[in-house]
């Protein structure tokens, strides 16, 4: 019995690590797509794409994943990818938006709907939850090893053109108008900051507490969406209990 329990615990930790890795790869894939789409798909001629590829290598992202993300942006292989957004409610009534890059909208829609249904959530119509999110530029600077006070960081961020900043124990989160994100990013990099994140994203206006009896279903939905190769981003307004795994 104890042997089974030990195996179960190890398997649980491995599954959690795999899920975390999947979310990291998903985010990098989206960044690769956006960098290649906005500029030249050849990294030799695209400095931003080279930076993201370096980040992908540092995260041990497989080369095939990197090539697939760039191919989506450049149309290599003849496939034409479209950006599609789905909106719905996760278990517990939590608003969720799903951004996908797909060459087959019917396939992707069916998979996203299935993920919501399997988890006890529901897929809604366009506009059903998007009004609960704000589109903002988000830049994150890790505090580990950074010799900057919160006040100094705030002043530098405002000088760079940011709108607001939030500080946690781990990082500074800097918010900008979407149209200013690139210029704020560049200004902070010129000041010598190493940025962990620089993107335009959807920020929930409010967080909805996920009921304890819905946590497992909620996590299952996010994990199933993350495992879908077509899904580029997941924006969710859930607040998990502090002791939830």
Automatic annotation (TrEMBL):
Keywords linked to the UniProt accession: Cytoplasm, DNA-binding, Transcription, Transcription regulation
Top-level taxon of origin: Bacteria
Gene3D superfamilies: 1.10.10.200, 3.30.70.980
GO molecular function: DNA binding
Pfam families per record: TACO1_YebC_N, Transcrip_reg
InterPro entries: Integrase-like_N, TACO1_YebC-like_2nd/3rd_dom, TACO1_YebC_N, Transcrip_reg_TACO1-like, Transcrip_reg_TACO1-like_dom3, YebC-like
TACO1/YebC-like N-terminal domain span: 5-75
Subcellular compartments: Cytoplasm
Main location class: cytoplasm
Disordered: region residues: 1-21
Residue intervals of the TACO1/YebC-like second and third domain: 81-236
Cross-referenced NCBIfam families: PRK00110.1 (NF001030), PRK12378.1 (NF009044), YebC/PmpR family DNA-binding transcriptional regulator (TIGR01033)
Family: Belongs to the TACO1 family.
Database matches in HAMAP family: Transcrip_reg_TACO1
UniProt protein name: Probable transcriptional regulatory protein L2504_07240
Record organism: Limosilactobacillus vaginalis
Upper classification of the organism: Bacteria, Bacillati, Bacillota, Bacilli, Lactobacillales
């Amino acid at each position: 019995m104890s042997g089974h329990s030990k195996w179960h615990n190890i398997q649980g930790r491995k599954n959690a690590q795999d899920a975390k890795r999947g979310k990291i790869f998903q985010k990098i894939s989206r960044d690769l797509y956006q960098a290649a789409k906005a500029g030249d798909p050849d990294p030799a001629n695209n400095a931003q794409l080279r930076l993201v590829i370096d980040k992908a290598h540092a995260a041990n992202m497989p080369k095939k994943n990197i090539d697939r993300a760039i191919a989506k942006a450049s149309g290599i292989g003849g496939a034409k990818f479209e950006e599609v957004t789905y909106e719905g409610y996760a278990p517990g009534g939590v608003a969720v938006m799903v951004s996908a890059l797909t060459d087959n909208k019917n396939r992707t829609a069916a998979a996203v709907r299935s993920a919501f249904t399997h988890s006890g959530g529901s897929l809604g119509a366009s506009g059903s939850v998007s009004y609960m999110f704000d589109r903002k530029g988000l830049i994150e600077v890790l505090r580990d090893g950074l010799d900057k006070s919160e006040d100094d960081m705030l002043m530098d961020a405002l000088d760079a053109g940011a709108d607001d900043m939030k500080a946690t124990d781990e990082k500074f989160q800097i918010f900008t108008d979407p149209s200013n994100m690139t210029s704020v990013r560049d200004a902070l990099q010129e000041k010598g900051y190493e940025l962990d994140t620089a993107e335009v994203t959807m920020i929930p206006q409010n967080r909805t507490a996920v009921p304890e009896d819905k946590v497992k279903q909620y996590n299952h939905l996010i994990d199933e969406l993350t495992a879908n190769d077509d899904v580029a981003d997941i924006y969710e307004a859930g607040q998990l209990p502090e002791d939830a795994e």
